[in-house]
Design goal:
The complex is a heterodimer of chains A (761) and B (232). Chain A is α+β, with helices and mostly antiparallel strands. Chain A is built from 18 helices and 18 strands. Chain B is built from eight helices and eleven strands. In chain B, strand 8 (148-151) and strand 9 (154-156) form a beta hairpin. Classes of the chains: A alpha+beta (761), B alpha/beta (232).
Chain lengths: 761, 232
Amino acid sequence: MKRTLFIIIHLMSVLLFAAGLGVIHRYTREGTGISWIEDTRFEDSVLFSEMVADDIENIKRYAVLKNAFENEGDGELDTNKLVVTAVTSNGNMSYRLSDLVKQAARYGYTMDDKSHRISVSETGTTDEPYEIRVTYKAFDPFYFDNIEPGPSQGVTNIRDLSVEALRALAEYYRLRTEYGTDMTNFVYNMTFDPESDYDIMMYNTGKTTDEIMSLGKYLIVTQERTIETNIEPQPENILSDENSFRLTDYDSNLMEIGIDTTYMFNDRYKEADDAFINDIRTAKTWLVILAGSAFAALISLVLTVRGFDEEDRRELAVDRMPLEALVFVYACLAVILYFIFKASLNTVFEELLEYSDRAFWRDITKGVITWLLSVCILSSMYRRSVNGGCFKNSLLQGIVRALSSEKDGRPAWNSLKGYVLFTAVNVCGVVFILRCYGMTMLGSFYSLAMWGCMVLLIAFDIFAYVLRYNRFRQRDEIRRAVNDIAGGNVDIKLNEAEFDGEALEVVKGLNNISVGLHTAINEQVKADKLKADLITNVSHDIRTPLTSIINYVDLMKRENITDPKLKGYIDVLDKKSSRLKNLTEDLLEASKASSGNIRMEFACIDMAELAEQAGGEFEDKFKSRNLELELSVPEDAVPVLADGRHLWRVFENLYNNAAKYSMEGTRVYAEVRTADEDKAVFTIKNVSEKKLNISPDELTERFVRGDVSRNTEGSGLGLSIAKSLTALMKGELKIEIDGDLYKASVIMDRYHDENDAVKEG
Amino acid sequence: MKQTILVCDDEKEIVEAISIYLQTEGFEVLKAYDGNEALKVLENNKVDLIIIDVMMPELDGIHATLKIREKLDIPIIILSAKSEDADKILGLNIGADDYITKPFNPLELVARVKSQLRRYVQLGNIGGSVSQAVYKCGGLTINDDNKEVFVDGELIKLTPIEYNILLLLVKNAGKVFSIDEIFEQIWNEEAIGADNTVAVHIRHIREKIEINPREPRYLKVVWGVGYKVEKQ
């Protein structure tokens, strides 16, 4: 798979990058950074400058030792020269170099004649060396300038003194080899005053000032103690040692240093130059490798993170956890990994690396671990951004969004405001008190401040509690009022003086709602009553003339009218007047039922019995239309709590509809059953004669009939009345239409108290 | 001797129509068009029964009835367009003997008039000759000896099963019988399954003994509970 390949490439390039860093680190000098690579020539480098500084220090030392150990005339080593004067228990003593070398040998310290290395043998004496007080040391002429005068000045013992002299001798040999030859690229002329009667002129090749200045790099300390040099950066601390540059009578420079930058002689400078050129070449190579690996890492990273197809970009389980949690998990992982690596790698590092390099390699390890884990997070973030937003699952963003959400008056922010203020004040107070607590000893001011702060804090807390209590009391009252309104008691009046802030707004709104609802309900009630009254009165008024019509039609029928035309007319009058009569009655009832203006006398009614009674009442009607009633009721009584007369009216209307609108010659199914523990259901089903192209809801609306037309008997109010009455008895009338199949169900609550069953009506 | 009936209504046409029906049945009819007129007529004539409307100018039917009852105990039938239960109860409570709502069936009106008159007239002379096997309930009389049933003195024809059901209910007047109970008593079988036989029989009985079967006076339906004959 491509992706795996790129992951491997990335891993390798990161490791290569780390390795490159390590290599370059090796060639880097502390504090100079990588800029040294720019100094393409060795003599322009810091390294060179440091080397020159070292050499200058060395020749100064060489001058001192030369003066201490050599003959004045021929400049040869003279071991009989007095080098130390001291006070011992035997009085003043002078020591020659050879004396001190012998003393050193007595204590087991000897110097090899060829290599001039000092070795210590076990055969030395174990005598306690006697104490002496040095008054002069030729190999350390400035010794007394550097220590405090006093009784312990120069106090040492013979063993330490002789070993010190032996070491100085070894150093002399080493420096002579180094600086006593003219086969060197390092040329010097120097005038030196080692606090003796005469100056020492020191040089190795005897070149003149001009010759030295033409060598390439030079450094000249003039008699005025200024430095002329073309070495960059200038070697430090050349003039720091006052004693070595005392003014001389000679009219010459104090020190002239030259380095032959052609490196004619095969010495330290030549070697350092070769190594430097080599280093630069290596470092440059590694820099290229570093850049290459960084580029490869970047490219492979981008490719790995982006992936190559949809599959690679699909959201993983990690991408669904909150971003912060992911970062936290990875941070934990990084720490764990680091400790594991530290434990295991430390041993390896200790074996392989110098002490100074270990910290660097540890840093590299940390870097690699951090980088790889960052890549994991980065790729997760990329997948997140592809799948709907980088910070989609971020907790912080969620919090920010919740706080800044304008919806609902920013409840999160509002609730947080007070809380943060409260907490902040308390924390500040507590911190202050704790700070003061330690200082109570210091003064009465702090004590006073502490107590004051405490009192303030308590007062503030009480104040906050009171505020909070008020808020909650207001909220409770509002909630109670809202519940009241929801429960139907719209007549609430909250005292606006008891509320403040947002609560006041809500309360004002609530009061308005209450007043509005109250008015609306009152008006509704009034309107309903008016309507019911209107219908009642109108129907009364209609009845009186209707009575006359019916009566006179009846009277006309009794007359011996033989004219068939007139008979037909009278028949029409008869039918229509009786229909009008039914209509007014139904209208009145419907209006009363729908406005709830009916008195209910609830009693325990056996639904099964009622269904049977109804069946008996309607038998003839069904028979006349050739319908068969299939009645099925349970054997046990089905008690419901209802008004018998009104429930009968519901049943009557349903049976009536079935009788009127069923297809002739079909069966009508009526059934009473107990639906469950609480419900009793009466169902009547029939097949409609006419098409039922109407919704069940419309059927129960006033004046709507299944066949839409209005030309048969009946008012179209039957179902409406039945529905209203059922509702008034806390039941439900359900109409279902399935093609021509018409089904009406009356669902009532069952009555459970058997003791009260079967009351007289 | 012709019985005299006072018809009082502010609608002249209705008074006219009623008087036509009553005259056809052989009654003498006196007419009045408000309560005061009715009272005047009563002062000057002997009247056997009054039919009175409620909503009338001057003096309405309710107050007129109250005034009439101060002196007379003749049957009063209220004829009103007001069909509310409350109106009916009020009318019957203040002394009316019957309450008919407009628009009415003329035949029913005549039947009720006759019924009221029969009871009023016979009230005095039915008394001593009650044998053991005679059960009475208001205007309903059952003579179990010769299996005859009279409603307001008129003989009614019933089938044996109808007779037995009516007898059961009248013997236990006031008690409510469910369909199953009636079935078990009459058929002497256990009532199994749904059957509206009893209900059908009851309806037939009601049609025979009641003037208006939808508003029965004797055999009452207690909807959803059963049937009973009211104790009177």
